[in-house]
Design brief:
143 residues; mainly alpha; 7 helices; globular; disordered C terminus
């Protein structure tokens, strides 16, 4: 699956990510975000609801991925509501990926949303992602 796509979504991950970021950063609802993107309001509402329902699990997944990928990555502090924290974790993973791979010329020009798509296997908004076993495994501490 190309990194600019999500499974079963007609819009690119950049458009979907812009709607999620509009909610997380600007606090916009689904109607203003949809109007700004030229997407039906019901579609954006679905994206926001799906993402909000799993925001904590998404935050944990991407924070864990960033720590595993980067060098001396410090998790961000609370950003606000759950969606904002999850979006911040995606940004943290992008920073970690750049830190690890850009210097070696292994990472081209990608957005945080494309990195999120790749890390989730295109399943960012899919039912059952991230799986419960992955969430619990990442929440356990090492002995």
């Amino acid at each position: 699956m190309p990194v600019f796509c999500l499974l079963r979504r007609a819009y690119s991950v950049t458009v979907i990510g812009a709607a999620l970021a509009a909610k997380a950063v600007l606090g916009l609802g689904h109607r203003p975000a949809a109007a700004g993107l030229g997407v039906p309001a019901g579609t954006v509402r679905g994206w926001l609801r799906r993402f909000a329902a799993r925001a904590e699990a998404v935050r944990v997944f991407f924070t864990w991925m960033a720590i595993a990928t980067g060098v001396d990555v410090a998790p961000p502090g609370p950003s606000g509501p759950g969606i904002a924290d999850a979006v911040a974790a995606i940004g943290l993973l992008l920073t970690a990926a750049w830190q690890r791979f850009a210097g070696a010329g292994l990472l081209g020009a990608v957005t945080g949303w494309e990195v999120a798509s790749a890390a989730s296997g295109g399943r960012l908004l899919s039912p059952g992602w991230p799986p419960a076993t992955a969430r619990s495994a990442r929440n356990t501490s090492c002995p």
